[in-house]
Amino acid sequence: MSTPSGVLVVGASAAGLATAEALRRKGYGGALTLVGDEPHPPYDRPPLSKQVLAGTWTPERAHLRTAEVLDVLDARFVLGDPAVALDVPTRTVVTASGLELGADAVVVATGVRPRTLPGQADLAGVHVLRSLADSLALREDLLVARRLVVVGDGVLGAEVAATARGLGVDVTLAGPQRFPLEAQLGPFVAGVLADLHAERGVRLRLGSAVTGLTGDGRVDGVLLDTGEVLPADVVVVALGAVPATEWLDGSGLTLDNGLVCDARCRAADGVYAVGDVARWHHDRLGFPLRLENRTNATEQAIVVADNILGAQRSYEPVPYFWTDQFDAKVHVHGTPAADAEATVVDGDPAARRFVVLHERDGVPIGVLGWNMPKQARQLRLHHLAPQAPLPEGRR
Amino acid sequence: MKVFVDEDRCCGAGSCVLVAPDVFDQRDEDGVVVLLEDRPADHLHAAVREAAGVCPAAAITLDGTA
Q1: Which cofactor names does the annotation list (chain B) (predicted)?
Q2: Fewer Cβ neighbours under 10 Å: the N or C end of chain B?
């Protein structure tokens, strides 16, 4: 493909911005447009459940770049105007306000949207957390909350529980697993995390699925599959997210748990996907993969930018995420699994500073650091060579 | 080129060290970024720009395009 004269990025968050910046870094001098559904300049989402929710950062501090740096990017930002359709043959995007934007290359970076519970929209006091507006609305409610129930025992749910507890709120964390993040961390590290939450006063109501919400006008409880009701005046629903691809329905692109792409992150001729929304074929592993990890957004963006400019790079990352809860900084490289063999390879769990290696059939699959970020990264380099396979369950 | 790091934003991912190990390191105790060269040599500029781009916490900023 020849160098495009116009690139249109749909999505103005981390992945979209990183794609635009990578294109400029690599010398692309043509027209560059970013379309975003929110009115804000690109901002970062990890602080929304931590510093912004806690109030230690102003919302502006979550912005990814200053206005001056965005100026140098020399891109047109169309904000607060979501894309509603894509015509693939002409690579034309239509926005909600009726703009028609054409380009030689279109990059889909529309991310994900939170899953919700039935009836949630009709009840005041029930929150999801994806956007800056979500974070600020939740904070407002938490400042006067008596009892928060967090529905969901994954990364986001556990982070919100920790932050809310730090604000002095009475917090219950509910979910089906034995320990928070058990699927991501395995029982050993997740067990340490459960201990930490319990020590800090989070009520763990785990091992039961949430089936619904109770209340009339405003939420007053969370219903478990045991029939038990957990009283609440504020609820956060953190049950994962689904790819934001509704706007591509009827486009002819393949939508199946994300925008399906080849190994080069290409969904069609001149159409690429990047970040949480992209389900691309991981060549080395031999199957499609979609990662909702912050670093994936920027790493994948570099490969997409290269490919837009004519390269033929396949994208084969080592998955990575981190989570901060209370005083714990947990860094996770590769693909730890609940059934992997876990061995402490550095530090001491009793001192809450350690690194665990996950192996399956003697093959390293994951490195988890607890308050040892540097050592975990170094062990990742040592153990997680690119040939390490992903377990079946994480495909 | 002058490089700035914001220790308060740094999340300790170490992405910068993977991309530009001659310019960035991490503290042993908490993984926070350590800037080894605030005015890196010309041949390192491309890697430093990439490090700033991939930082998942937007903790690296650059001044000057030289």
Answers
A1: [3Fe-4S] cluster
A2: C
